[in-house]
Amino acid sequence: MISISILLLIIIPLVVAFLIPLLDLYNKLLRRYLVIIGGVIEISISIYIIISYFSDLKAGKFFLTYYLGGWGPPFGINLVMDSVSLIFSSLISFALFFIIIYSIGFIGHHEGKYYVLFFLILGAMQGAILTGDMFNLYVFIELLTVTSAPLVAFKRNKHATEAAIKYMFYGVIGGLFFFVGVILLYFNIGSLNMAQLAQHFAEIENNMQLTIISIFLIGLLIKIGIFPFHFWLPKAHSACPSSLSALLSGVLLKVYLYIFIRLFWIVIGFEFLLEFNIASFLVYLALVSSLFGHVFALQASDIKRMLAFSSIGHIGMILAVFLLNTETGFYGGLLHIISHLLMKTGLFLSTGYLLQYTKSNHIDDFAGVGHQNKGIFVGFILLTLSMIGMPPFIGFFSKWYIIMAFLKIQHHFGAIVVVLGSLSAVFYYLRFIAKGYEKIKLSASDLKNEIYNRPILSVFYREKLVTTVIYIFVGMIILTGFSFRLFELPLQEGIKELINPQNYINLILGG
Amino acid sequence: MIYLEYLLLLFLIIAAVMAVYFEDEVISIIFLSVVSVILTTLYLLYQAADVALAEAVIGAGLNTAIYMSAISQIREKSK
Amino acid sequence: MKKFLVGLLFIGLAFLLLINFAELPEEKLITFSLSDYYIGFGLEQTGALNLVTAILYDYRGFDSLGESTVIFAAVSGIVLILSRKMLPVSSHGLSFIVKRTLGILTPFIALFSLYVITHGHLTPGGGFQGGVILAAISIIFSIVYGSAFDYKRYSPELKTTFETGGALVFIIIGGLGILFDGFFLDNLDFLTHSPGTLISAGSIPLINIGIGFKVGAGLAIVFYSMIQKTFGEEF
Amino acid sequence: MLPAVTDNNLVQIMIITGILVTLLTIIYAWKKLKKNKIYFVMLTIIYLVSFIIVIGTDKWIVFLGGWEFVTLTTSLMFAWDDWKLVKQYFLIQFAGSSILLYAVLVIINNGYAEVGIINSTFLQNILIVGLATKSALFGFHFWLPAIYANSSGLVNAISSGWVVKLGYIILLKVIIPEQGNALLFYAGILMLIYGGVKALLEVKLKVLMAYSTLSQLGLIAIGIGSGTVYGYYGAVLHIIIHALTKTGFFINLDDIINKSGTQNIYELAARFNYSLFKIITIFGFSFSLSGVVFLAGFNSKYLIKNSLPGPLLLIIFYLGGLLTFLYTLRLLYWLFIFQGKQKAFLLRLNNYKINFSIDLFINIPILLIILLLGNYPDLLNYWLPALDSFSFPLGSGIGETILYLLVAYLILEKLNWVRTKEKEYLEIDVLFNKIEVLLNKIGKASLKFDTEKIVEHYFLRGIYKLSGKTHDFIYRSFSDQLSWIPLFLALLLAWRYLV
Amino acid sequence: MLHHLVFTVLFLLGLYTVIYKNNLIKMVIGLNIMEIAVFFWVIAVSDTGKSVPIYHLNKFAASFNDPVPQALTLTGIIIGASTTALLLTFIIELNKFADTIDSNKLEGLNE
């Protein structure tokens, strides 16, 4: 069913991003209101989509599409939203709305440019999720790299610029491999539309299929940050301002995961991965990456670097669960994507605010933070509890279903890695929490006066704003913890789609 | 006529190797622009006019300008 | 020893790449593939002679929108990183002879770039290539006449307006597509006369002009902020 | 054959005991704690609700969720003593619950969706290993003495009174009374003997009580593992009795330690002048624990004794019983009888007043229950139907108790009442010392006995050093990191040849 | 077959420079060479000897080269240009703090 609202999800952030420099020329204060309006419109569009098509979702026929330029599916670019992308896109607009609110008083210099790039990332993410065309997907991936790199170097000190350089090198090489993959697909099949590619992928000659799969694999593994290529991730996520590292490691990694899922389950079809038994190799690779993520997180002395390593751990775990290609695997994976997104974004936002009370991000300077700001530190603790997998929160249920998925096919190594992961998570989170409550009197003078951290609005006003944002995330994980059946409907639909990609093809080409 | 393509391909590889081989950045950038000029002619040979124009303008023009300005900023600083 | 290993790896990789990529099939699997459709119906559906521009700005217009946003993002990223509050010291220009000759040449360069932009749908070229040539003028100003000259002639505020203006023109034309033909970036065919004339390919030339100015101004800003010689103290 | 206890009967009786025990601790906590008492009471109520969920539920996900909640609330209770303890207790218990999570999920995947009888012994053993850390089974008991040494008697009462027993209650539900479980049985015997010997040699009061809990848990494990209905009933009864007596014991000891300021049993006698009622309660608790006739302990031990199959195990059981008597008598001797320079304890008996809150509300109810259960065990007939069919030989019991007391008295007299030196380290420190010396061959700092040292010094720092080394090994230089890309490209492109 | 050979040589040359050269600007040049190699390969393979996909006024020839890869390469070249520009600005910025562009001396890059 054709609906304009999908297109608005992508176009609105782009329009806001283009308007901000114009607005800046005339008067700078309007920009903040434009930004909030942009966020509000974005989240209201996704709410509108959920509400107005809820009956379709219940009936299992949820399928929105939009033909750009008026051309039919195989010949033009078309946007596609099924229930898996519905979950992702509404999660993105929800999380980014709060990150926008959080970063209002947070950004010191160049706030205009920050918001331009921020909204471009938001638009590019929505685009990457909704597009139904391979080359368009490549353009959005490149857009994500090009917009997030300058934001990684936002602090303009030595550490941040090095992180940006490393991030760009890996990003560009990954993008190049993805480009080669798209071109190979075109040369073999002759179309760029995902549905048509999925239809004809089986007819390609065997060796060529293997080449296409391996080229795409390298491109996406670099982007997702799996073990041999994760080196850019911790430095990039620890060097950028916290509101952005929340976006990068909380939301952006999930977008690349979604692209991985859509590519290998719907376009290429998972049976080819099984046929060349790359799937089992990838499962072990992802598990090793999760193990290394957690091991490195143990020794990280910088709190944001620790959080970045822990995202590597969790993303590796989610990828491994997906690659098992079982129903519970998909359910556990999707549930953990939702819970990890909420938890990690909340964690980074609260760390960002707590780091205001410390001289540097190093763990020794983190001492005594718990006493400085009790409200946010308690929020931080609740989020870590959910990260470990304590019951009232959603972290427990998603960990439960992931281990269940592993054990259902007697994959004990995976289950042990997940258990060890959450065990090591206890160690490195508790290390920081214990450090936070140490009795060290921090005199006002040696508080960090890092530029970007001096909140513009009065501290009192902004602190209340930040506490509300963080406790919204805490509330979300408790709410979803109790009623994760809430996600039952889209999750089941999504799993059905992942299991038989044929109906995706029929819906687009048939329709 | 056909030999022109092989000749150009040969020059292309030589220029690329030269661009990588020399220590001094300015020389390697000049060789890089030589590579992109050769590429423009190659694209014309392969009947891809738009790409040739783009490669000429961006490869030879813009890239060289940006590399040169980067090197001048770095050399300026170290002086 | 390490050198030998690296060499071995790269030779092996070369060999593997050759084997894998050499198996590209001659003809594509789908009989009536994308390119056959574009070649077959390109002219009468979009009215543009240059099929590559037809694809870039009409069939897959959304790609170009993403494409121009990549440039827009790169430009604002570069300005974010390199901009310093200090008043820029003007870079010293070149010798008099060069200044004089380029004084004559610049209008022709400008004319050529406008030609490339507007005739995108008829001859090779288009918004992107023309825009880059347009940026060359500002690059010439900064190098040959010194960045202060460029600052006066083509001030950063003007560049920003051009850049964002171009981007918004693109989106407005797309929006018009919704009004007239029901879909974003739809080709406004009512503008077309017989193919081959200047105003012939519906919204393609308009988009070309929008992108041309956008890329021109954007890359001008890039070069202007890179060439600035400012004292490196913190912002 | 005796009818087995139906599940909801077992659940009911266990929940009632749990509530009773927790109420006692709340009363004592209300009297003892000074600041933010309300939080403690709220915490205990959440803990109460969660262990009722754990015992009552039959869905594994709710069971595990409830159990993690119990861990969270009990570890927060340590906050009233010391935040470091919270960290250590939470680390250890979380490790235990991760193993439990793994075990439970393996069980679910083998077809047991409900918390109920599991037929295959292999799965039972997995669950036992899963519950081991939580219920201080033999291999995983090291944390019990370490944590109890530093924490206050109040939280010890809760932990050893009920938290540790949750594991056995679940095992009661899971293991078939007729078949039992060998692993549990032999672990129980090991715990019985090991706990007894350790308690005999211990100097610190709370650590002594920790080891005595260990040996009593061993008894329960024997009962469940023995595979006879006698053993099953004995274990149920012993859980109830031990929960009550141990909680009361810890509360009174905590009272004594707080007043006298030292844990060393040799110094306690001199510092504390006991009221008559206090002496009666402590005598009553310790005798009931060691199984003196007319007190509840005797009946449950008698049942467990009947469940033992062979004569050899009977001898081991008697040895265990003797050990319990030995360390209880030694404790009582040093607490009350030893007068050294002071007047004989009878002469010091001057105050008869009853400490209102503790004695009246806590000691008297427990003593009453012990006496009632001792003489009329069939009071619990509603929940445990077969109790009245057992004939508890109270008559021959008297001879047995006197025999035990005499033999224990003679042994202790010969060993001069086992006056051991206060040990600097717990035995697990010695173990860790060896590992430390082995590992990095540096001069061993003299280790003062402190749980902080154990967890922090060896466990955590060792992990950080190890992960630091792996990190540096992987993160050599930028070009090495980038060189993974061609390596991986070659691997994938050559995939068709490799596989 | 020749085009694949040229592509492999150029691509691996670029990859070698990115990984093993320690001058940051050289690495960016290497990256550029990799991109150039890919775009050359796309156009070389898509050239089927037919004429350029533009309708010349005089003849309405029907046999055109495939326009789609040309459009994709064009977009690729422009993206490549903007990423190179962005990378070079980071190097300029880094040079302001570290005043060397030798990746061995920059410890931060290995972290």
- Specify the helix fraction band of chain B: over 70%
| Domains of chain B (count) | 1
Largest Cβ-defined interface: A-C, 67 and 55 residues
Counting H and I runs of at least 4 residues, what is the number of helices of chain C? 9
Coarse shape of chain C: globular
Largest sheet of chain C: none
Beta strands of chain C, count: 0
- Rg over alpha carbons of chain C: 23 Å
Please write the string of helix (H) and strand (E) elements of chain B.
HHH
Tell me the radius of gyration of chain B.
14 Å
Q: Low-confidence runs of chain C (pLDDT<50, min 5 residues)?
A: 231-235
Distance between the termini of chain C: 47 Å
Q: Which residues of chain B form runs of ≥5 with pLDDT under 50? A: none
Instruction: Give the amount of beta strand of chain C, in percent.
Output: under 5%
Q: How many strands in all of chain B?
A: 0
Distance between the termini of chain B: 50 Å
Label the overall shape of chain B: flat
Task: State the domain count of chain C.
Answer: 1
Taking the sheet with the most strands of chain B, its summary is: none
Name the beta content range of chain B: under 5%
Commentary on this structure:
The complex is a heteropentamer of chains A (511), B (79), C (235), D (499) and E (111). Chain A is mainly alpha-helical and 511 residues long. Chain A has one domain (5-510). Chain A is 75% helix and 2% strand. Mean pLDDT of chain A is 87; it is low at 448-456. With 235 residues, chain C is mainly α. Chain C has one domain (60-227). Chain C is 70% helix and 0% strand. Chain C has helices at residues 2-22, 34-46, 51-59, 61-82, 96-118, 127-145, 147-153, 156-181, 204-227. The model of chain C is unreliable at 231-235 (pLDDT under 50). Chain D is mainly alpha-helical and 499 residues long. Chain D is 73% helix and 0% strand. Chain D folds into two domains: 7-414, no CATH class; 427-498, no CATH class. The model of chain D is unreliable at 440-449 (pLDDT under 50). Classes of the chains: A mainly alpha (511), B mainly alpha (79), C mainly alpha (235), D mainly alpha (499), E mainly alpha (111). Chains A and C meet through helix 1, helix 5, helix 6, helix 7 and helix 9 of A and helix 2, helix 4 and helix 8 of C.
